[in-house]
Amino acid sequence: MQTGDRQYKLAYAYAAVAVLLWATSASAFKLSLQYVGVQPLLFIASATSTVVFLIYLIATGRLRLLRTFTGRDCLLSAGLGLLNPFLYYVILFKAYSLLLAQEAQPINFVWPLTLVLLSIPLLGQRIRLISILAILISFAGVVIIATRPETPSDILRFRFSNARGAFLALSTTIIWSLYWIYNTKDQRDEAVRLFMNFAFASIYILALMLATGQAAVPDARGLLGGVYIGIFEMGVTFLAWLKAMRSAKTTAHVVNLIYLVPFLSLLCIALVVGERILPSTILGLILIVTGIVVQKLTG
């Protein structure tokens, strides 16, 4: 019993660390993008994460698992790395450069419902009426956040504060959902998978930087921001979340902690970035999370 309680507490401790660190991500993105471009920021973050995962593989004796990789395994990692972190973060960082952090973060959070929609054609799953309702509730929240209405009638005018930024933030939910669907078919060790995905992504972003002439030494503040994101949004945080999942008897209770992220993120954005949190953001976020919870409870 004592061992079980200890393991239960350990799972929550790992999950709490991951949630708290992820809550700082939006602020780190927004602040870092003031000093460095999208591509250099992603390269710094991705390369840093690759080093973090490599150190973890060495420390845990998993590095030897790379010897078992076949050509097909490498191609799979190359494809998954193209989706995430390469495409996902290139588009996400661009969205953050166009939107307020308090707008980009909640819109990006609707990915669980995008996953439901993509599961219909890709996995052959059927969608229930309650799921359609849940999706409509969440996307109503997205519209409210993206249009910043001051009166109810403003919502119907669909005047987006930045339509391109909102579209990019929404598109990241498609990329993340595709990554999640194809990643579930990969049975290799999760830490090894992450290392390979990020290693390939680092190569992709470096090639893109060289092709577009953006391979330059970044501002020190941008460099520190990229390293922070690489360690605390991607590297250590992903590993902490994996530890939480492995330590938990049932993952349901631990996974529920993820719903704290957008609300804690708003608090961090207000305190660190200095954005005044708009009433439309709070209302939109409540609708988004409500839709996700309804889908989770009834799905």
Question: What's the SSE blueprint?
Answer:
Elements: H1 2-22, H2 25-32, H3 38-59, H4 71-98, H5 101-108, H6 111-123, H7 129-147, H8 152-155, H9 163-183, H10 190-212, H11 220-247, H12 251-255, H13 261-273, H14 279-298
Helix pairs in contact: 1-11, 2-5, 2-11, 2-13, 3-4, 3-10, 3-11, 4-9, 4-10, 5-9, 5-13, 5-14, 6-9, 7-14
Structure description:
By secondary structure, the protein is mostly helical. It has one domain (2-298). The protein has 14 helices and no strands. The protein has helices at 2-22, 25-32, 38-59, 71-98, 101-108, 111-123, 129-147, 152-155, 163-183, 190-212, 220-247, 251-255, 261-273, 279-298. α6 packs across α9 (163-183). The model has no long low-confidence stretch (mean pLDDT 90).
Task: Provide a concise account of the structure shown.
By secondary structure, the chain is mainly alpha-helical.
The tally of helices reads: 14
- What is the structural class? mainly alpha
For the record, give the distance between the C-alpha atoms at the N and C termini, rounded to a whole number.
33 Å
State mean pLDDT (0 to 100 scale). 90
**Helical percentage:** over 70%
